[in-house]
Structures are given as C-alpha cells and as structure tokens.
Amino acid sequence: MNTVRKSLLTIFLLLTTIISLSYLLGSCRKESRIKELELLQQDIPSGFPVPAYNFSDNPLSTEGFELGRKLFYDGRLSIDNATPCSSCHQQIAGFGTFEHDRSHGVNNSHTLRNAPGLFNLAWNTSFHWDGKYTTLVDAIAQPINGHIEMGESFNGVISKIQDDPAYRESFKKVFGYPFIRPEYILKALAQFIGYMVSANSKYDRYKKGTESFSPQEENGYQVYKANCATCHPEPLFTDYSYRNIGLPVDNFLKDYGRLMITGKAEDSLKFKVPTLRNTYISSNYMHDGRMGTLAQCVNHYRNSVQQSSTLDPLLATGITLTNTQTTDLLLFLRALTDSAFIQDPRFRQPD
Question: Do residues 331 and 220 make contact, with C-beta atoms less than 8 angstroms apart?
C-alpha cells in the first residue's frame, strides 16, 4: 500500500511540475511576443475618471489596433461581403449612423434601433441601448452574428480571410498563434474601438482655459447644468443609467427597452442614457432614431413627455425652458463636437 501511495505521489508531483513548466514557458512566450509589439498607452484625458476597462486581458499595440481597424472596415465580416462595421458606424457621425433613423443590415434588413456612437467606450460597464452586454467583446460579437445586422458566423468570416497572407501575418504577430480564431477577431476589434477617445471639443478647451465660450454658449452651459447634468454629468456627459424619458412606444417596433432584457415591469421603456458628446453631428436621435434634429429632442422634454408608471421622476413635469434658453442650450451642445476626432486619420478606412 505504501508503495502505491508513493507511486501516486510521484505521478502527482511530476504532473504538477509539467503543468508549472508549461505555464512558465507559455508566459515567457507571451512576454516575448508582447515585447516585439509596439505597445500603446491607453488614452485617459485629463479630468476623466479611471476607465472601467484597462485592456489588461488584451494588451494595446499599434499592430493590434491596425488589425482591428482593417477588420472594422472589411465587408467580409458580413454575409454579403458588403456590410462592414463601418456601414452603421461612420466617422463623420462620431461613429454612429449618419442622418438615418435605424441602421440597415444585410439583405435590405432594417435593425430595431439607431446605432450609437463608438467612442469613450472604455468607461462603459454595459453596452447597447438595453444593456444586454457587459463586455466590449460581447457587444462587438452580436452585430457580426446578428441576422439583421451582418448575418455572418465566425467560421464564415475566418474561411474568407484566412487565405489572406497579410491577415495571417498580422494575427500571428499580435496574438502569437498560427491560426485565426474568433476571440482574436473580437480582441483586435476591441483594441480599435476601445482606443477611440473623444475629448477635444470646444467645451474641453474651455475647461482647460485655452478657449472661451460665446455669451450664448455660456448661457447654454448654465441651462445644461440646471436641467440636464443629473443624467448627463460632466465630463462623459452620461451617467450610464437606464431611464424612461417619456417617449411613447412605437406600435410597429414594440421596443420596450431594458424590460426585454430583465423581464422586470419596472424596466419598461427604459433605455440607456446616451452621451451628449458629438451629439450635434450624430443625428438621428433617441433609441429608434425617431427625431431628426436636436431641437426636436429638446422640445420633447419641454412639451411631449408622456406619463407612465416607469417615467423617470425627474421628468414628471417635463423641463421648462424659454425659447432663448433652448437656443442657447443647442449652441452649448454644438460646443461638445470634437472635430478633431471625426477627422482623425488614425480612425479612417485604411488605404
């Protein structure tokens, strides 16, 4: 019996040693590979809080970012080879859908909602209008696989790009594996999308003391602080909460927002509070793009808030604004436009 025990102990110690050595060798290979990459520093603007996501599981690099950028603009990620991520997320609109209500997908499909802008996502802890996804990679996977968005499978994507020598070389360099895998596609896209930071608007320069507001913009800033800042606090201009802002349900779409995820009646008609940054150039507005102008959005809060059991208590009586205050508020919102971001060549379609 003692001999058997000693033999089992010996085998156990041998296996433990092998596993430990494999782990150490794997870690060394990973560290060696990462050293060969041009690592990027996460951009955290002055005055911003600590990001919720710091890329600890997906080290940022120039090579990973560029691979993600290539994938973002590649139509082969869709079933029809013509509907890339960029078809719904356009740089001119802060990587939202430019002047359109709801996004179009493959096979002439029409999605349920308006595509939100893609920037400052490292500060998010949930994604999409209803918060269905809690990680950036999961949020990225959905439209690729969604039958009315891009309609493709990862096996389908890989079968189309694995014969591309440039892709194979890039994936191997970034992730150290000779084959393209779904998780690597998602991680590369997360590096590109998660690296997008918008914090260079006139408002940001005003806060730094390098530029001044006009009297109307200054008045609009005060109107914002008195009426909008609770749900859209500085500097990110969203509190990431889910709220019913008194929009009547669209009888055709029947979109009840957060309720469709949680199943809780108290979440009916609640949608994620969007950022006000770049809102001036990101029409259409609201979760389903029903409003074409910012003036319509502001006037909704002034005159059209619909009462319901889940209406946000802050909007029980709407928001009282004069016409002058409305005009000034709109001018302040325009000052949240980051022109450098929407023209940044780093985020454009690669040549």
Answer: yes
> What DSSP letter does each residue of 109-127 carry, written as one string?
-B-SSPPPP-SSGGG-SSB
CA of 140: how far to CAs of 74, 89, 127, in Å?
14, 12, 9
Instruction: Copy the structure tokens of residue 122.
Output: 């490292």
Look at phi and psi of residue 107 and say left if phi exceeds 0, alpha if psi is from -120 to 50, else beta: left
Which residues of the chain are under the pLDDT cut of 50? 22, 25-28
pLDDT tens profile 118-140? 999 999 999 999 999 999 999 99
How confident is the model at residue 185, as a pLDDT?
98
pTM: 0.88
Torsional sign, CA 205, 208, 210, 214: positive
Q: Which domains does the chain have, with CATH numbers?
A: 62-198 (1.10.760.10), 202-340 (1.10.760.10)
- 152-188 in b/e form (b: 16+ CB < 10 A) is bebebbbebbeeeeebeebbeebbbeeebebebbbbb
d(CA 246, CA 113): 17
The crossing angle, in degrees rounded to 10, of helices 182-194 and 136-145 is 120
- How far apart CA 127 and CA 130 sit, in angstroms, is 7
CA–CA–CA angle 233, 335, 329 (5° rounding)? 70
pLDDT given for residue 25 in this prediction:
42
Please give the pLDDT value at position 71: 98
